[in-house]
Amino acid sequence: MIKFHPWNIGIQLVKQREGWKIPVIACQRKQDFAAPATNCCSLIESLHQMNAPEAADSADSGRSVFQQHSRLFESNRFVYPVVSRRSQGVSVGVNLNPDKVCNFDCIYCQVNRRSESDTRFVDMQPLLEELQSVLQLVNSGELFQHPQFASTPEHLRRLNDIAFSGDGEPTTFRNFDQIIAAAAEIRRQHVSDTVRMVLITNASMFHRPHVKRGLEILDQNNGQIWAKLDAGTENYYQLIERTKIPFRQILDNITAAAIVRPIVIQSLFMNVNGVPPDAAEIFAFCNRLQECSAAGGQLELVQIYTVARQPAESFVTALSKSEVEDIASTVREVTGLQAVAYV
Hints:
Blueprint: E1 10-17, E2 20-27, H1 53-60, E3 79-84, E4 89-95, H2 124-140, E5 159-165, H3 176-190, E6 196-201, H4 209-219, E7 223-228, H5 234-241, H6 247-260, E8 263-268, E9 271-272, H7 279-294, E10 299-305, E11 316-317, H8 321-335, E12 339-342
Helix pairs in contact: 2-3, 3-4, 6-7, 7-8
């Protein structure tokens, strides 16, 4: 079984400061991203331990910075820091879907959509205040003073990016372009120009004008798109994503975006009822990547990974390390693209 995967694994800590709590998370994954929360591959966990720091510290004491996960904060509703191996540093997550609304219903997603969220909409001003506060927390180095972050490798003790994701598809946020613009201004005021703005997305809304505007703002602020593509055929796409959005729309949107700027493809493969994707599906997936490249799309990197924690659907399980590495190897051989296995 896979032991960890970037963005998917994190830890919870509660930092006491002058009588109030600062919730902080360290994790590895897309995707997986906030009341704060997790993104489409994240697990919503109970927060009752936040009222008992001693118990939480005891429960977490034996776990490393990459082995714990909880992103539902008591104080923050939208923004949280994570330590990410894929980002090679600290990634500050911004959850634009605290209501857990998503236009995909991926079988591997760990967001519990059967329960209601306490936060039903994004309040922009508090979100921006949280973003500024968390950036200051990371920049000051206070994040690494806590015992559970003390083991963070030195080379990861750097702010790498501000990542937009959440408990659903971030580009469905109706004021997407406005929140990207406001966050970009905070970035300019508080962090280095080398800090990226990353959008973790299923690419379903790229054709909409306000999303296009948001992508253009990302481009102007050292932005990067991580677009999800988990299938090579329509049938497998529907099996995995369970959405009314046509596969062709996703492929067209990814290609259109990649023609304008280089993008990263993130692809999660798994066992479904004990069966991994067959060779024909993987070759079809490679063909979709080649079609994008042939149309002028700039695919900077293909990230291949598998599930790291128990998804909402019990029939979904992780691939083995060798299976993930074999898929990445096939992508490199067939497409000539850079592909990395995260296992």
